[in-house]
Amino acid sequence: MTTYLDGKRLARTEVGILNELFGPLTFEERLKQLYRYFPREAVLFTSSFGTKSVFLLHLLSRIQPEQTIHFIDTGFHFPETLAYKDELTHAFGLRIVDVTPDANQHEVSRMEQLWSVDPSLCCAVNKLSPLEPLKARHKVWISGLMAYQTEFRSGLRVFEKKDGILKFYPLIDIDEGEFLFHMSFYQLPPHPLESKGYGSIGCEHCTAMGKGREGRWKGTGKTECGLHP
Fold it and tell me: What's the predicted TM-score (pTM) here?
């Protein structure tokens, strides 16, 4: 199995084998098994502390509490998101490392209000570029995407090879009912903006009220930040 674990040599057929092994498992079993195949130092975990983040953060805190969690601090988060991050960090004992954009590029994006003229470039400057050095140092990247959220996500498998790193989606095939049951059973705190009508939450300038992800980049035709496609 060693061949399958080397991110630099992982081929499509080998990704298929990993999907055969992990596909039948529950989301909890998948996360446990991941650390039997990959050392913790090879695993990248990022979180936006959005409306669905608490599910996987809670799960990870129980299964692998030593895992570092990288928070992508774009500089444009809602104050409520930053407060929620602090709340969950304390409640779950999370090990957080903030990831920030280049200060000069970020300031240009702020001065030019880049989110309004070119939201994809704004995401690239403040979210994608800061992650590139991290991706280069890891072999597998955990993500909490769920298939029911968008059409793009509905086509994903448990493992995908993207841009030189193995993406791992342990929650990909759960439905909204299962998510809500988990939230209720463990009495997990929701994002404070959910009660105000925000179904999905990213940066303040590019998030509006709306069901599901309909409030993200509203009116632009953009549906993803670029981290996952």
Answer: 0.85
